[in-house]
Amino acid sequence: MTNLITFSFKEKPVRVVIIDGEPHWVGKDVTESLGYANSSDAITKHCKGVAKRYPLQTEGGIQEFRVLSEADVLRLIVNSRLPEAEKFERLVFEEVLPSIRKTGFYVSPSTQLESLQTRLQIAEMKLQVFEEHHPAKFYDYDEAAALCSHYRKPPFGREHLKRWLVTKGILCKQAAKNDKPIQHYLYIRWFIPVIHEWYRRGRKYSENRFYISPKGLMGMIEMMIRDNLLHIPATPQQVFPELYPPTEASQRLSIADEPSADVEMA
Fold it and tell me: What residue numbers bound the domain in which 126 lies?
């Protein structure tokens, strides 16, 4: 889950930080969005939660801001005289909070398409880098799950990935065939069948095993992003952290808490 999340209301930024797994809202941003003339007075008068402060990077350097719990944000909304307070309440409790709790981040509907395209481009770039270091062009379910796990917390496992593929209508539902893809995905070459042969007690056996192609893996990643199952980092620092040595400020803030850029096989 990302430590700093920002969304906008009436063209004003509202920052949310994650503390001990729970979202806390920068009080100054909330009071300004709700039309309070004096942020400190509004927080003192209406908020009852334990006072917490959090360091954030600003143009003037690192500053500590008072952050508010969900309950205190609601108290400020209820006491606001701004007509748009109801819109702010709907945005926070019907869009932003559910998204944060489900996925660990929030992207406004107006920027979702642009963000999706950016994340897909970065996912494709990382897949290309992976393939340059690993000559094999097809992946079994363990390898595909390991790749996807670099974009997800908690990570995918082989069986978790296969169950998801069944729910998406990509793998057959029958328990005995849950490694076998639907014919359509064989036709569009998301999967490649490979005949495996072996001998036991003098008898020859063979079966088809199915491997995921790079095209199939990219298609799955796209579907996972659309389902908000993956969070692909969208900055150069997050994609290639080894090129950006951590500064004292970034270590203190821990804003970009993303998986490593190195991809390992399962």
Answer: 111-253
- pTM value is 0.43
What is the tally of helices (H) and strands (E) in the chain?
12, 7
Total domains in the chain come to 2
Q: Within this chain, do residues 140 and 191 fall inside the same structural domain, yes or no?
A: yes
Instruction: Please state the length of the chain.
Output: 266
265 lies in some domain: no
pLDDT in tens, 94-148: 888 888 877 677 766 555 555 556 666 656 655 565 555 444 568 888 888 887 7
Instruction: Enter the tokens of residue 225.
Output: 């992003």
Contacts for 183 with CB less than 8 Å, ≥ 6 apart: none
Q: Nearest 10 degrees: CA dihedral of 109, 110, 113, 116?
A: -60
Q: Using CA atoms, how far apart are residues 165 and 158, in angstroms rounded to an integer?
A: 11
Taking the CA atoms of 103, 77, 112 and 5 in sequence, report the sign of the dihedral they define. negative
Q: What is the pLDDT of residues 134-166, one digit of tens each?
A: 445 688 888 888 877 776 767 778 888 888 899
Q: Mapping DSSP to helix (H, G, I), strand (E, B) and coil, where does residue 186 land?
A: helix
Burial class (CB in 10 A: 0-12, 13-18, 19+), 189: exposed
